[in-house]
Design goal:
3-stranded mixed β-sheet, alpha+beta, 136 residues, single chain, 17% strand
């Protein structure tokens, strides 16, 4: 992965893992496992996890090929914690032994908006004045 602080250029990276039997697991189980790993990654700027913040756009799995694809974003291309968030996500994904390869794709289209957040953190950030309410 190539990542610079100024522009956060992302080069797709694959993680090779030990091959494991997938017989007893299905897509739903592995997807849940991935989401749980991603929920453990917090954006230090907001103190909410990246799933709550709506930074995960897509999770695709192909168990026949032992392959996963995750598309995510950051709150801004110049996120001061971007590199550490991406590194932590990569570390968490490497812990998932049930998938041999996982591609992590960092995108900035569509641009992240507070509307993508789950309701609870969004309400708390509006209450504290971090975001303005979109309701009139």
């Amino acid at each position: 992965m190539i990542c610079t602080l100024a522009i956060l250029i992302y080069d797709e990276q694959m993680f090779l893992k030990d091959t494991k039997e997938l017989e007893s697991m299905d897509v739903k189980d592995i997807r849940k496992m991935i989401v749980e790993k991603l929920e453990s990654v917090k954006d230090p700027e907001f103190d909410y996890n990246i799933v709550e913040l709506g930074l995960i756009y897509e999770i695709r799995l192909d168990l026949d090929r032992s392959y996963g694809y995750i598309k995510m974003t950051l709150t801004t291309p110049f996120c001061p914690y971007g590199n550490s968030i991406i590194n932590e996500v990569n570390q968490k994904l490497q812990e998932i032994q049930e998938i041999e390869y996982i591609d992590l794709d960092i995108v900035f289209e569509p641009e992240w908006k507070p509307d993508y957040m789950e309701e609870n953190p969004k309400e708390k950030l509006i209450e504290t004045g971090v975001f303005k309410s979109t309701n009139s």
